[in-house]
Predict the 3D structure of the following.
Amino acid sequence: MQSKEHKDTKYAWQLERDSDYTSATAFDSIEECIADAQDYFAEENVKIKSITIQELEPYEISVDAERVLEVVWEEAEANVGDLVDDWLDSRTAYTTEQLNDLSERLTGVVKTWLKETHNEPDFFHIIGEKEISICNIPQ
């Protein structure tokens, strides 16, 4: 886990990896995260030896153009049959650069639509974890 906290980085706590005891909130600092865990376990009257701090980053939308083109091809095949056999063949129809360009464009369109419809992701993904011993947590 990085020692320097970044603007978009958030933190959550978990009693231990894969535990049901976890914070429902993402915190701006490790210190806030530790304080919340201490408060939670004090209220529950649970003695803990350590917690796992999870480093979080906002989930980033990404559209895989190759998967989109597969769906487009499958739809065409379902409608017109074998006439589409050589159409959009990934070995000959387009280059990797063209596919990457399409992925970027589609990602941009989806992100814009999500923003316009107020459906942007409000969740995070874990990018790192670090166990902190209770002796390192000020009481």
Q: What stands out?
A: The two ends are 23 Å apart (CA to CA). Helices lie at 30-43, 65-80, 96-116.
